[in-house]
From TrEMBL:
<keyword id="KW-0808">Transferase</keyword>
<feature type="domain" description="Aminotransferase class I/classII large">
    <location>
        <begin position="22"/>
        <end position="316"/>
    </location>
</feature>
<dbReference type="InterPro" id="IPR015424">
    <property type="entry name" value="PyrdxlP-dep_Trfase"/>
</dbReference>
<protein>
    <submittedName>
        <fullName>Aminotransferase</fullName>
    </submittedName>
</protein>
<dbReference type="Pfam" id="PF00155">
    <property type="entry name" value="Aminotran_1_2"/>
</dbReference>
<dbReference type="InterPro" id="IPR015422">
    <property type="entry name" value="PyrdxlP-dep_Trfase_small"/>
</dbReference>
<keyword id="KW-0032">Aminotransferase</keyword>
<dbReference type="GO" id="GO:0008483">
    <property type="term" value="F:transaminase activity"/>
</dbReference>
<dbReference type="InterPro" id="IPR004839">
    <property type="entry name" value="Aminotransferase_I/II_large"/>
</dbReference>
<dbReference type="InterPro" id="IPR015421">
    <property type="entry name" value="PyrdxlP-dep_Trfase_major"/>
</dbReference>
<comment type="similarity">
    <text>Belongs to the class-II pyridoxal-phosphate-dependent aminotransferase family.</text>
</comment>
<dbReference type="GO" id="GO:0030170">
    <property type="term" value="F:pyridoxal phosphate binding"/>
</dbReference>
<dbReference type="InterPro" id="IPR050106">
    <property type="entry name" value="HistidinolP_aminotransfase"/>
</dbReference>
<keyword id="KW-0663">Pyridoxal phosphate</keyword>
<dbReference type="InterPro" id="IPR001917">
    <property type="entry name" value="Aminotrans_II_pyridoxalP_BS"/>
</dbReference>
């Protein structure tokens, strides 16, 4: 007898999060995959007895075609996490230096430690943006620099021209991870032209993921693209049979449902603007977030106290700030009611 679906999800610890509208600590999409993606996932179960492609060549082509780059420029991994580790394994040796902002995506220090790198951290400026001058200075002896745009946790972006100026200041053999995990939430005028950028800077790897806007965090799929020479080096580290069939099918189905996906992304961005506006009316400032979350800097009443007992799962920072994933109106209401009650 087949166990009920919920029991199976529960057995792997996925159920509480999947149905919890207050789980706002990981910047996931709060909605289940699009109907077309779900039915594609159901349809691929009959192929589960077979390995996926030895190296994900077809997926690579699919992504390349979608993003307007050559397929030999693309690498694929288990989330952006897998891609970043692949880059670190390919280009660093233990003891090399990695430069990153602070605060930043929690993964970077973990990945650096796994690759046995030294880390140099550079505080954000007062607007929650990268201090690119200080990072360029810190990167003189570094092998890798991570720049995350929009930034996690502040959601801010630096103008494309500033990023380009920063890149011209770096040594040509310092690899730059331009982490665009949230790029799909950016308005067109704020996006960087990735293919042109990597054509100009042979040391830049643009990193993207299907975990955020595409809402497929549980399937673990991400990719990177860069100049062909560097990509060849990175592809050598491509894990055999490393990307499961369901992940590959979900990408194909997502690309076929692009207009619904864009509609969902617009809805999440609108919800973020709404929450920001309502918080502002309550006297609460947030950084200029451009992704699917808001960052509220610390203030006299500590945020953990404000949200205590609300049931909300949020990411609290040592400097007193808090990051809140945005998406559903239900979670927006819960955040607003906790803040209102504490005002
Ligand atoms: C900036 C940034 N990069 C990478 C990741 C990792 O994403 P993935 O699920 O693709 O490994 C995250 C996840 O929160 C992130 O915020």
């Amino acid at each position: 007898m087949v166990a009920p679906r919920s029991a199976l999800l529960d057995a792997v610890g996925a159920l509480p999060q999947a149905v919890n509208p207050l789980a706002l600590s990981l910047n996931e999409c709060p909605f289940p995959p699009l109907p077309a993606v779900r039915s594609a996932l159901r349809a691929c179960d009959e192929a589960a007895n077979r390995y996926p492609e030895f190296l994900p060549q077809r997926l690579r082509s699919l992504i390349a075609r979608h993003d307007g780059i050559a397929e030999e420029q693309v690498i694929v991994g288990a989330g952006a996490t897998g891609v970043i580790m692949q880059v670190l394994h390919a280009v660093t040796s233990p003891g090399d230096t990695m430069v990153m902002a602070t605060p930043t995506f929690d993964g970077y220090p973990i990945f650096a430690q796994m690759a046995r790198l030294r880390t140099v951290t550079v505080p954000l400026d007062e607007h929650g943006r990268h201090d690119l001058d200080a990072m360029a200075e810190g990167a003189r002896q570094a092998r890798v620099v991570a720049v995350c745009r929009p930034h996690n946790p502040t959601g801010t972006i630096e103008p494309a021209a500033e990023i380009e100026r920063f890149l011209t200041r770096l040594p040509a053999d310092t690899v730059v991870l331009l982490d665009e995990a949230y790029v799909e939430f950016l308005a067109a005028e704020h996006r960087i032209d990735g293919p042109t950028l990597v054509a100009r800077f042979g040391n830049v790897v643009v990193v993207r993921t299907f975990s955020k806007a595409y809402g497929l965090a549980g399937l673990r799929i991400g990719y990177g693209f860069c100049a062909p020479d560097l990509a060849r080096e990175l592809w050598r580290m491509q894990l055999p049979f490393g990307i499961g069939i369901s992940a590959q099918v979900a990408v194909a189905a997502s690309y076929s449902a692009e207009s619904q996906l864009r509609q969902r992304i617009r809805m999440i961005a609108a919800e973020r603007r709404y929450l920001q506006m309502r918080l502002r009316a309550l006297g609460v400032y947030s950084t200029d977030g451009q992704a699917n979350f808001l960052f509220l800097p610390g203030r006299p009443t500590p945020w953990p106290e404000v949200f205590d007992g609300s049931g909300l799962q949020l990411r609290h920072y040592a400097d007193g700030g808090v990051r809140i994933t945005v998406g559903s109106r239900q979670s927006t209401r819960a955040v607003l009611s906790a803040v209102t009650a504490a005002s």
